[in-house]
Amino acid sequence: MNPESNADAAIPATRRLYWAVRRELWENRSIYLAPLAVAALILVGFLISTISLPGKIRAASALSPMQQHNLIAQPYLIAAGLMMLTTLAVGVFYSLDALYGERRDRSILFWKSLPVSDLTTVLSKAITPVVILPLVTFAITAMVQWIMLLVSSAVLLGNGLSAAPIWTHASLFEKWLMLLYHFLTVHGLWYAPIYGWLLLVSAWARRAPFLWAGLPLLAVAVAEKIAFNTWHFGTMVATRMLGGGGGSEEFMTGYLSMDPLMHFSPGAFLMSPGLWIGLAIAAAFLAAAVRVRHYRDPI
After folding, report:
1. Which range of residues forms the domain containing residue 157?
2. Contact, 71 vs 172, CB < 8 A?
3. How far apart are the first and last CA of the chain?
4. DSSP, residue by residue, 67-86
5. Closest to 87 in 3D by CA, of 9, 18, 184
6. What is the pLDDT of residues 50-78, one digit of tens each?
7. Is 128 helix (H, G, I), strand (E, B) or coil?
8. Count: domains in the chain
9. Where are the alpha helices (H) located in 99-242, listed in sequence order?
10. Whether the predicted pLDDT of 262 surpasses 50
11. pTM score, two decimals?
C-alpha cells in the first residue's frame, strides 16, 4: 500500500477544508483590500465633514431627542450601508471568478493534483462569501465607526463642546450587535443561494460568466411575463437580492435609531420558509458545481 495515500487519508476533512479556506484568503486579497479601500474613503469624507460638526451639534440642541439621534447617527449608518454594498459587490465578483479563474489560468491542473477533493474546494469557495467576507467586513466597519466616534469626540472637545451627545446617540455597541447579526443573516445565510448560483455558473461557463449568471434569470422572468403576465420570479429574485428576509430595510432606513435590540428576531428568521428554501437551493447549486468542476477542463 502506498504510504503517501495513507498519509493523505490521515488528514481530517475539516483540516483540509480549513487550509482550503485559508488558501482563498491568500489568493483573493480583494476580500479584505476592497472593504479597506472603501473604509479609507469613508474616513476621508468623514474627516472633511468634521469641519461643520461643532455647528451641527450646536444646532442639534434645539431639536427633539429623535431628531438629534437621527442627525448624529446618520454618518454611522451611511458608513455601514456603504460597507454592506461593498460586501455584496465583492461577494458577487469573487463567486463569479472563483471556479472560472482557476480554469482560465489553468491552475486547476495544479490544485487537482493535490489531495483536495472537488467537494472541499467548492465548499471553501462557498464559505468565503457566506461566512468569511461578512465577518471581515463587519470587523472593518466596526473599526471605521470607532475611529469616527473618536475623531468626533476630539473635534468637539477641541472646540470647547461636550462629546457626550455623540457617545449617547451613536450607541455603537448596540449597533455593532445588530450589524453583526445583519452581516451573518442577510449577507451570509440569506444570500447563500445567490452565491451558490454564481459558483455554479463560474464552474460551467467558458467565457463571460457575468452574462451567463444574469441572462438565464432575465430570460425566465421575461418568459413568465409573456406567458402569465406576472413577475413572481423577478420579484422573488429582487427580494432575495435586497435582503428581504433579514431586516436590511430597517437598518438601511434608520429604523434602528432608538433601540436596535428590539429588532432582533433570530427565531422568526430561522423559522422563515424563505431561508430554508434558499439554503436548499444553495445546496443543490453547490452540489451541481462540485460535479461540473470534476469534469470541466481548463479553458
Report:
1. 3-295
2. no
3. 36
4. HHHHHHHHHHHHHHHHHHHH
5. 184
6. 898 888 888 877 777 788 777 888 899 89
7. helix
8. 1
9. 100-104, 108-112, 118-127, 133-158, 164-170, 172-184, 192-204, 209-228, 232-241
10. no
11. 0.85
